[in-house]
Amino acid sequence: MSAFIYATTRTPFGKFKGALAGVRTDDLAAGVIEALLVGTPGLEPAAIEEVVWGNSNGTGEDNRNIGRMAALLAGLPTSVPANTVNRLCGSSLDAAIIGSRQIKSGDADIVLVGGVESMTRAPWVLPKPANGFPASDITALSTTIGWRQINPRMPEEWTVSLGEANEQLQERFRITRERQDEFAVRSHLLAAKAWDEGFYDDLVVPFAGMTRDEGVRSDSSVEKLAGLKPVFRPDGTITAGNASPLSDGASAVLLGSEQAAERIGRAPIARIAGCGAFALDPQDFGYAPVDAANRALARAGIDWSQIGGVELNEAFAVQSLVCVDAWLEQGLQDPELVNQKGGAIALGHPLGASGGRILGTLAKVLRERGARWGVAAICIGVGQGLAVVLENPEASA
Predict the structure, then answer these.
(1) Does 347 fall in a domain?
(2) Which residues neighbour 198 within 8 Å (Cβ) at sequence distance 6 or greater?
(3) Could you tell me if residue 374 is inside a domain?
(4) Which end of the chain is least crowded, N or C, by CB within 10 Å?
(5) Domain ranges, residue 40
(6) How big is the chain by its Cα radius of gyration, in Å?
(7) Dist CA 216 CA 184 (whole Å)
(8) 239 part of a folded domain
(9) For the segment 118-158, what is each residue's pLDDT rounded down to a tens digit?
(10) How high is the pLDDT of residue 135?
(11) Could you tell me the CATH number of the domain that includes residue 63?
(12) pTM, whole model, 2 decimals?
């Protein structure tokens, strides 16, 4: 049995402390579920057999099981069960993989998956003291991104910041600052062009007064980015301009079996043909999508020469370039097949929502191009990567 994508939607992605800063995380998630249901009027909500939701920060307003909270707030029947998945940046892509397995195994016929993150509203946390009134100071830790309360038994090389890890990656693969800035500018210009041409109009639902992704800069240029200072090393290459920004947003994807089409009221837009996960040393996380994608391709029974579109989440320009370079050596035909409508450097990267975004974009790119096969891939902190191969049903004959 196969699992299919029937519908996708997402909110516009907001800047850190931007237009979505006043929206609770559970309300973001509920809003995108409501939007997907409105856009799928033939589907009876009670027919959804499971909600699988991605979220990187379970503290604060995420309220631990945000999948269940969002389902209830969105008005789904209380009989619809819900689960929350945390694989950091890969959370909503992992949710889609889990949902597809439920369908393939016959455990469910229709599964709603997605993810959410408010990096603006992620709370500060304090370690709970062993005694009620400690005499020393206690430091509040931001849960927005990165390591916190590190176990001292972890090797130091594993626990470097995400930025330092990518500076190490650029040293290893000799990815220049100029290449990174050029890649970042490409992301902004392609994203702006895609928005102007209406590509995202039916993929993104207006939310909280926003109609477009907040971080896209149509006037971006290599000259402007060249003036930015490195963030993680005084002599480094990574800047605020060639890395993904902190973001807020949510995405949702409706999965079903082939037989579910009648109950959903529409034909599927993509088939999930193969999935892959890969892990390596934590500091090398940016390279993990390379082999995650290769595993997904092998399970789909195809190779890179057959791929007509790639959506790679742009955590950093350097790790994106390293992955693309590797795939070109392995048979990908053209680097321009990657992120044809812009990527996370421009659009934003709300951790728990990005996997759903790249699935929805890839499915539409394949239909637009008339291509049969595509890859969605994402790197994940602490040394992991995930990938999904999609097949376009309209081009599969």
Answers:
(1) yes
(2) none
(3) yes
(4) C
(5) 3-120+245-390
(6) 20
(7) 11
(8) no
(9) 999 999 988 888 777 888 888 888 999 888 889 999 999 99
(10) 83
(11) 3.40.47.10
(12) 0.97
**What pLDDT is stored for residue 190 in this prediction?**
98
What is the longest distance spanned by two Cα atoms in the chain?
A: 71
SS3 at position 146: coil
The pLDDT, as a whole number, for residue 396 is 62
C-alpha to C-alpha distance for 384 and 285, rounded to whole angstroms:
6
89 is catalytic: yes
Helix (H) or strand (E) holding 29: helix 25-38
The predicted pLDDT at position 397 comes to 54
Spatial separation of the C-alpha atoms in residues 253 and 96, rounded to whole Å: 8
E-strand ranges in the chain read: 3-10, 14-15, 50-54, 82-85, 110-118, 124-125, 141-142, 247-256, 270-279, 307-312, 373-380, 384-391
Instruction: Collect the ranges in the chain with pLDDT lower than 70.
Output: 396-397
The per-residue pLDDT for 63 is 86
Burial 41-79 (b: 16+ CB within 10 A, else e): eebebeebbbbbbbbbbeebbbbeebbbbbbbbbebeee
Which position has the token pair 């991104």? 145
Decide if 63 is inside a domain: yes
Distance CA 306, CA 326 (A): 16
Query: Which contiguous run of DSSP H or E holds residue 319?
Result: helix 317-329
Beta bridge partners of 256: 4, 110
Active site residue 379: yes
The count of structural domains within the chain is: 1
Spatial CB neighbours of 284, under 8 Å, sequence gap ≥ 6: 165, 169, 383
Catalytic residue among 188, 275, 323, 379: 379
User: Which residue of the set 89, 188, 275, 323 is catalytic?
Assistant: 89
pLDDT digits (tens, 9 = 90+) for 226-249: 999 999 999 999 999 999 999 999
> Can you tell me the distance from the alpha carbon of 344 to that of 216, in angstroms, rounded to the nearest whole number?
10
Helix axes 317-329, 162-173, angle to 10 degrees: 40
